[in-house]
Amino acid sequence: MKLFYRGHQYETNPPHLEADAVEEIGTYRGAPFKRNHFPAVQNRSHGQVQLTYRGVKYSQDV
Question: Are 40 and 17 a contacting pair, CB within 8 Å?
Fold first, then answer.
């Protein structure tokens, strides 16, 4: 997915999540209100990225 922020373009690959179970927890204005339960997502390392702060370049793990 291509995204733009303040004139800079970058790409992201969001994780695909599927709900384990759906639970009805109540009603809101007469409509049933449901909550999805998702499995715990492990932290993914994206590696090192080159960043610039006030003209100074540096690299950082994300």
Answer: no
